[in-house]
Amino acid sequence: MEDQGSHMAGSPYRLPHRRLMDTAPAASASEPGHSRSNGMHIMVSILVVVIACTLLYCVYCWRWRKRNAVRRAQIESLRPLSNSDLPLMDLSSIHAATNNFSKENKLGEGGFGPVYKGVLGEGAEIAVKRLSARSRQGAAEFRNEVELIAKLQHRNLVRLLGCCVEKDEKMLIYEYLPNRSLDAFLFDTRKSAQLAWKMRQSIILGIARGILYLHEDSCLKVIHRDLKASNVLLDNKMNPKISDFGMAKIFEGEGNEVNTGHVVGTYGYMAPEYAMEGVFSVKSDVFSFGVLVLEILSGQRNGAMYLQAHQQTLIQDAWKFWNEDRAAELMDASLAGSYSRDEAWRCFHVGLLCVQENPDLRPTMSNVVLMLISDQMQMPAPAEPPLFARLKKVSVSEFSLAMKTETTKTQSVNDVSITMIEPR
Length: 424
Hints:
By secondary structure, the chain is of the alpha+beta class. 46% of the residues lie in helices and 15% in strands. It has a 5-stranded antiparallel β-sheet with strand order 1-2-3-5-4, with helices on both faces. It has a two-stranded antiparallel ribbon with strand order 6-9. Helix 6 runs antiparallel to helix 8 (282-298), helix 6 (197-217) packs antiparallel against helix 12 and helix 8 (282-298) runs antiparallel to helix 11.
């Protein structure tokens, strides 16, 4: 024992070695638990990321399927109508006809979207109305226009040749009218001289016959709701053709008027009862027609710019000049007095009867046509048109949301405000 003790005491390595041996098991015992804890945290983190990614993917797939289901439903709802009443045109043919919707082929742009000129393989010219992704109008208005105009055929309505519903595209294909719209002539001082009196008279009568067909003579009773100069197209012989039926409504049953909470149309052409109360009827179209007649006679637009320049609307000026026997002062200067006074005054009188404030006093379109073609028909004195008392400044965004704006080159999206007319 002594030898062993003296041996151990005499060895300089025994004590440190013993201490090392004493501490080694504790250190080695703690390492497996620590590594297991780190591994668990890593596995949990990976699992959370995988679950989150899986959920995001599932949400994406659900939204994608839902969006495609809606699109398929819209397309399928259109196909039966198109197959039975209207030819379907394939997208590749339209791309070829319009040179892939090139800027050179663009004719203009409206609430629905841009319109392009196209030439089919056999040489036929077409106008392609393409639904814009940013358009306030959508599948409902697209279907509405297809349903309506496919069933309506009249020489004073634009002719729909077909439609395209492919991929994300919705397009209407119309006959191409080389002279574009009436407002391009009427409100352009360089072109207005091309509208001689006989031509203006023919355009007024043609529009009246087109509206009469919609109201009384077609298989449907249709209210256009957006009759204005830019929605009257002119063919190569300057015959008028009413277009843009996206806002039109079919009257069902024996009802004479409808109250809607959603007012659409273009300010300056809207009847007061529709603009203020949301009530529309065939007499709403009659009012719009009356405004259009006075614009054709005067060569001026009934809108905010006219009000700012004259302190009252075009229709109020027309009524004032009529009562004061000064109607000649409102006639378009580009006519240079070259018109039949009797014919012009008859049109003037009809226009004023159509814009009377009380819809019951406005004539029907059948009476309008009779008054325009007969110089023997007795016409009542027109009552005063609706009054507008003050101007209100609104932002461009508010104005755009309220209703479709007039398409004029004088308006700019950079303006701080646009002047609107408020009824008294």
